[in-house]
Every structure is written in C-alpha cells, then in structure tokens.
Amino acid sequence: MITDESLEKFLDDLAGRAPTPGGGSAAAVIGAIGAALVSMVCNVTLGKQGYEGVEADLQAVRDESEIVRARLTALVAEDVAAFDSLMAAYKLPKATEEDKGRRAAAIQAALRRATEAPLDCARAAAEVIELARRASEQGYTGVISDGGVGVLAGYTALRSAALNVYINAPSLKDRSFADEAVAEIGRLLEFGAAESDAVYRLVRGKLG
Amino acid sequence: MITDESLEKFLDDLAGRAPTPGGGSAAAVIGAIGAALVSMVCNVTLGKQGYEGVEADLQAVRDESEIVRARLTALVAEDVAAFDSLMAAYKLPKATEEDKGRRAAAIQAALRRATEAPLDCARAAAEVIELARRASEQGYTGVISDGGVGVLAGYTALRSAALNVYINAPSLKDRSFADEAVAEIGRLLEFGAAESDAVYRLVRGKLG
User: Fold this and answer.
1) Cβ of B152 and A156 within 8 Å?
2) How far is A86 from A79, CA to CA, in rounded Å?
3) Core-most of A207, B25, B119, B206, by most CB within 10 Å?
4) From CA A188, how far away is CA A119, in angstroms rounded?
5) Are A64 and A127 in contact (CB under 8 A)?
6) How far apart are CA A119 and CA A131, in angstroms?
7) Which of B14, B43, B202, B206 should we substitute to test contact with A (largest number of A Cβ atoms within 10 Å)?
8) Mean pLDDT of A49-68
C-alpha cells in the first residue's frame, strides 16, 4: 500500500519520471493532511477547561474528519490504480474491429474511474473545509493556526482534484456523466473558495 | 527522522493530541509535495520529442526544485524541534531572579527558532511557485495538471507558513527581527498570490 511507504519515499516517487503517483494522489494526501489537522484541533480542545460547551460538536467534527481522512487516504492508492488501468487500456490490441471495440470500451471504463477518483477527492476536500470552519470557530485558540492550515490544505486538495476532473471529462463518451461531474466540481469550487476565504480570515483575525 | 515514517503514521501523528507534528510540519510537507511535482513535470518532459528547446531550462528547474524539496523535507523535522525547544523553555524553573532571566532568554531563543523555521518554509515555498511557473509554461502538456497541483501546493505551504510566523512574531523582544520577518512574509504572500493565480489560469487554459 502506497501510504505504508515512508514520506520520503512517497516524495521521491512523486518526483520521479513514472506518471504515478502524480497530482491526483498528491491532492488526496494534501486533503488527508487537512483532515488530520482538523482532528488535531478537536483532540487538543477536548477536555480543556473553558471549552465544555463545544465538546459535543467538536467530538462530532473529529469523528467526521477521521472518516473523511480515511476516505482521502484510500484515494491516494485509488488514483494510482485508476491511472494505471487507463494506461493498460490504451495498450490493448487494436488490430481487428473487435479488438478496437474492446479497447474503446476499456478506455471509457478507465476514464470514468479516473474521473470518479478526483471527484470523490473533491467532495471529501469540501467536507474538510466545512469541518475546518467548525473546528476553527470553536477550537482552542492555541491551535487555531492548525485549523487555518487545515482549511488551506482542504481547498488546495479541492482545486487540485478539480484539475484532474477537467483533464479526463472531455474524453468521456457518456456526456451526461461528464457534464454532471464538471458541474458538480464547479459548485464545490464555488463553495470552497468562499468558505476557505472566510475561515482563513477568521483564523488570521484570532492570531492578532 | 519523521520523514522516514510511513505516510499513514505521519497523518496519525498529525491528527493526534500531541502538539507536534502540527501545522508547521504540514506546511513543509505540502511544500515538498509541490517541489516533487515540479521535478516530475521536468523529468517526464526531458527527452521527449518536440521539447528539445526547453531541455536546458527544465534541467535547471529540476535541479533547483530538488534542492528546494530537500530544504522543505528537512524543515518538517526542524519545525518539530523548534516547537519542542519552545515547550522545554517554558518549563524551565522560575523560582529565583536568575532562573527567571535564564528562562526568558531560553524562551526568546526558542521563539526566534520557531519563527525562522516557518520563514524559511515560506521562502522555499515561494521558490516552488516560481519553479512551477517555469515547469508549467514549458513542460509536456500531458502532465500540465501536475504543474498546476505543484503551484497550488507551493502557495498553500507559503500561506500556512505565514500563519506560523504571525503566531510567534508578536512575542519576540527583538522587534527589528520580528518586524522584518512579518514584512518579508507580506512580500512573499503578495508575490505568491499573483504568481500562483497566473500559473493556475495558465494550466486551466491548457486543459481546454
């Protein structure tokens, strides 16, 4: 599993000539970092004097952010698998008409998978942004900057995943799926831009 | 070394109740991801037909981005060490006047270190943004989205590092150092905002 490798090895693999892991996996890692920071803000705040009133909500935020983090961590490997299946489909034989038909179908299936992975990543990243807002509004002021980094990481994961949807969507023959994917990305980006900007300003304000 | 740990373990530690690793280390990792993606765009492009004219510059970009990546990777651990030394300084005895003087000096030294680490991270992240621009302008179109993710990662690392400078700078007694640090962060953020926006639009345009 790619996430069992050392951070150093992951960075080396990212930098290398091989196409995977690439920007899609990087987006998922950055989103998972954002989710982890949201959990940290909650974990540090829970049990602190003066924060009794927000315990219930921060517990809920932490539980949700841990679920989102697991989804994003799984997407690091899924993005590699989706890209590899696309590369494998392109290499299928195309000598006969039957070959060609089979190859085209395999490419379309792989393209769909390679669009769904970043779409899922974008959805999860939008949740990170929303959770980072709740954590930053209510969390212990001593770790408020971590909430700020969390929201920035979530927004970058979202914008990065969007780029990967934009690459693959145009080649999809299923236009209704492709158009809906691009439209959903547009809505998520609009939400993410406004929300992450508001949270960053809130955090910056609290830092004095 | 923290970067020898698995990605999964790093994320678990980030999410945990312990204050380190925190947002400062997360910023350095995100910056290193950006640098790695810049290197990848160069590595994939070098040797490709039709890109002979940009080889020399992309080789230079790749060499620089690998140096910046090593700096950012080292800052993941340095941020933890700086924060730990600050915590240790706060725990020093303060019974006598001599104790108090020694403790205050240790806190100031640790605060300076905890300001220099994110300042260095911000400088390196600004270089990632600049290198991502050169890689995205000249690199192979098939990996252009990776250049886009690289610039977003660089900008998020810069903004995240800035938050960590803003936390520590107000407590520094050396006002000229603190003011210059905050002023430099302001200049880096201004550069990063304009440059990353331009690169993102360039990449988005090339994706069609």
Assistant:
1) yes
2) 11
3) B25
4) 10
5) yes
6) 19
7) B14
8) 97
Contacts of B116 (CB under 8 A, 6+ apart): B82
What is the spatial distance between Cα B99 and Cα B110, in angstroms, rounded to a whole number? 16
Amino acid at A98: E
Which pLDDT value is given to residue B203? 94
What does the alpha-carbon distance between residue B60 and residue B68 come to, in Å, rounded to a whole number? 12
Distance from CA of B156 to the nearest CA of A (A): 6
Average pLDDT over chain B, rounded to an integer: 96
pLDDT at B207: 85
Residue B126 has pLDDT above 70, yes or no: yes
The answer to whether A79 faces chain B, any CB pair under 8 Å, is no
A79-108 as b/e: b if 16+ CB within 10 A: bbebbebbeebeeeeeeeeeeeeebeebbe
pLDDT tier for residue A88 given thresholds of 50, 70 and 90: very high
- The predicted-structure confidence for A3-43, as pLDDT tens digits, reads as follows 899 999 999 999 999 989 999 999 999 999 999 999 999 99
pTM for this entry: 0.97
Compute the distance between CA of residue B149 and CA of residue A31 in angstroms, rounded to an integer: 12
Query: What residues form DSSP beta bridges with B202?
Result: none
Task: Give the amino acid at B186.
Answer: G
| SS3 label, residue A1 | coil
Cα separation, A39 vs B96, whole angstroms: 40
